Amino acid sequence: MPPMVRVQLVGADYTTRSCRCKIRNVACLGCGNEIGYHITQPCTECLKACNNGHFWMFLTESVYPVEIKDHEVSSGTMAWPVLQPELDLEDMSALSCRDAVCR
């Protein structure tokens, strides 16, 4: 789940012609631009289908990936198994904007 101090679900849920999933757009709270969408309630057909299980989709023209570096591992790149538990809001306020968004 993305850090809710920098992005937020906006507008009402909507559906598409291809399925009955309920979808809501995601916007950056810094600039206000819509940067993707979130499936708030997947439909039965999509839950039964073979998919990657991702419910947060980001527009490639709106965001870009950044590798999070970990100097304690030999490769230097942080991997999912070694991620720290999610920080609470008080801990996140001490991070820079980039650190909070890239977490």
Automatic annotation (TrEMBL):
Cellular component terms (Gene Ontology): cytosol
Pfam family, one: YPEH2ZP
Superkingdom of the source species: Eukaryota
InterPro entries reported for this sequence: YPEH2ZP
Stated family: Belongs to the FAM72 family.
Name of the protein in its database record: Protein FAM72A
